[in-house]
Amino acid sequence: EEDLLNDVCREVVEKWSEAQIVDAKEKKEDEIQAIASMMEKQARIVVKPKEVSQEEKQRKAALLAQYANVTDEEEYPFPDPAETRASSALNTLPALFRNTNVEDVVNARKLERELLRDEFQKKKEQDKLQREKDKLAKQERKEKEKKRTQKGERKR
């Protein structure tokens, strides 16, 4: 019985190994088939060229010309970045649009500085008034103390 059992086990293992090899080959063939079908689908897809109107072509040409002018005017080696920022903020090239980011930031900072300056002035004035009030209150306390001591002296 043991010999028969070993033979049966060996046969089961062999059949299982053969089935695994066949499955692996089928999987590879399936993958190859899937890749081939994807490639065929991609080959069938035709990309239509985008239709661009004459107006859009003119806009694009104007934009490219504008940037071409900017690059033609630049120097090599490039100037100091601080100078570049200052000059670019002041330069106004005729363009289809105007970049106002730098101006907006500069204006926002100016406004912020003015507000801080105003707040500082107000605080300064309030501090001055408070010092005057404190000085008057101190003086009044001294006078009251003086009057109290004078009354005490008179009673004696």
TrEMBL record:
Annotated stretches, region: Disordered: 117-156
Any keyword Coiled coil?
Answer: yes
Q: Where is the composition biased (Basic residues)?
A: 144-156
Compositional bias segments (type: Basic and acidic residues): 117-143
Residue spans making up a coiled coil are 21-73
Superkingdom field: Eukaryota
InterPro entries associated with the record? CCDC43 (IPR037666)
Protein name according to UniProt: CCD43 protein
**Source organism:** Eurystomus gularis
